[in-house]
Amino acid sequence: MTVLVTGAAGFIGTHVLLKLLDNGVPVVAVDNFVNSTSASINRVRRISKTNFELLEGDVGNSSFLNGVFKGRHINAVIHLAGLKSVAESCESPLKYFENNVNGSIRLLAACDAADVRTFIFSSSATVYGAAETMPIPETCPPANPASPYGRSKLIVEGILRDLGQSNPKWKIAILRYFNPIGAHPSGLIGEFPAGIPNNLVPYVAQVASGQLQEVIVHGDDYPTPDGTGIRDYIHVSDLASGHISALAAIREGGGVHTWNLGTGRGYSVLEVLETFSMICGRQIPFRIGPRREGDVPVCFADPSKARRDLDWSPVNDLRDMLEDTWRWQKLNPNGYIE
């Protein structure tokens, strides 16, 4: 079996590639390098001691996609490519629908034409919106997502369900990520977003290393114990393992399945800052700012369905995740620029 991985050079993509290679699965990597670099792929090759094909192109380009499938014995697709900033999506919603929704449609059309119908989709807990049930099970009806980013993911989920109903040959896993953080234990691959980070942990890491001045805590008046938002953080390596388990499950059973990938434990912004301060040995400076559009007060998973169906459970706790993040940051203050 050969797996095509879109968005392969990104934070999650590199770790998924490694897990596939660790399990002896041949891969074809695709990325347009808009928010990533081929240097991350070279690091994956270095860690895995494996060479594999890397194709530069956009999943929104149908002719490129048709060329990817032509002449290659691809059996499954893990679709990770997409824009992911909640804040940016609120400012530029059309950009997100074009990239995340239309790009996915073009990819699925190319898969269908090539008779490749084993498909894993990178979705998000943002589809739940401001869920009233905590922890959130997959049976919680997706509400009105609080951002165009979340809405783009929910739209693609609906398309996948319609595909599954139209043709039983489709074998689809929808994986709803909570908040991936951490880095590979080697310190060779990790998260280094272009420009100012939009997510909390990479921002905190850059403050800890002196590259940014302070953390802005977006709101301290939420209905939570310390007033700051609570999220379910999951180590990116645990998340990647979930893809391997999901791929095995849908190849055996088929159909359309949805699984949460989270730990089932929520941590507040201030708890993350306190833990990171202990790890790096200095107090992380921060100030309170206004709430950010698109954020919800609390979001953490009920991962019991994935544990039951996939025999999968995360093994890293918050300290593990932040220690790996700090190692990556110290070894790579400029990301993949050497």
Which terms summarize this structure?
338 residues, alpha/beta, Rossmann fold, 14 strands, 17% strand
Account of the 3D structure:
This protein is an alpha/beta fold. It has a domain at 3-182 and 233-265 and 301-315: NAD(P)-binding Rossmann-like Domain (Rossmann fold, 3-Layer(aba) Sandwich). Helices cover 41% and strands 17% of the residues. The chain has eleven helices and 14 strands. Helix 2 (38-48) links the parallel strand 2 and strand 3 (53-56). The protein is globular and about 55 Å long.
Short description:
This protein has 338 residues and is of the alpha/beta class. It is built from eleven helices and 14 strands.
- CATH class descriptor of the domain at 3-182 and 233-265 and 301-315: Alpha Beta
Assembly level: single chain
Query: Mean pLDDT, as a whole number?
Result: 96
- Major sheet: size, sense and barrel closure? 7 strands, parallel
Per DSSP E runs of 2 or more residues, the count of β-strands stands at: 14
Q: Order of SSEs, N→C?
A: EHEHEHEHHEHEEHEEEHEEHEEHH
CATH fold group of the domain at 3-182 and 233-265 and 301-315: Rossmann fold
Low-confidence stretches: none
CATH superfamily of the domain at 3-182 and 233-265 and 301-315: NAD(P)-binding Rossmann-like Domain
- Residues in helix, %: 40-55%
Tell me the CATH architecture of the domain at 3-182 and 233-265 and 301-315: 3-Layer(aba) Sandwich
Q: What would you report as the Rg, rounded to the nearest angstrom?
A: 19 Å
Strand proportion, as a percent range, falls in 15-25%
Strand line-up across the major sheet: 3-2-1-4-5-6-11
Q: Which structural category fits the helices and strands? A: alpha/beta
